[in-house]
Amino acid sequence: MKKKKLDLLSPKELEQWLGITVQRQNHLRNIPFYRDSENPIPFYKITGLGVRYKPSEILEWIKRQKVIRNAKNRT
Fold this sequence. Notes:
Elements lengths: L10 H8 L3 H8 L1 H4 L9 E3 L3 E3 L2 H9 L12
Antiparallel strand pairs: 1-2
C-alpha cells in the first residue's frame, strides 16, 4: 500500500506563502491561552515534525477574519 503524503505546511512554508512570520504564528497559536478567542489559527502538532498547517483550513480561517463595518455608525 502506497502512503499518501498529507499536504501540510511548516511554519516557514506558511510564512513564504502568506507572509505571516513564524513569530506571529506563535502568537496566533497561543491566543486561547491568554485571551477569550473563538478564532485561533488552526494547526497540528505532529510528533517528530512539530507544528504543521493544512492550507484549506488556513484559507477558511482567513475568511473568518473578515470585518464588516457599518458605514452609518462611523464618525
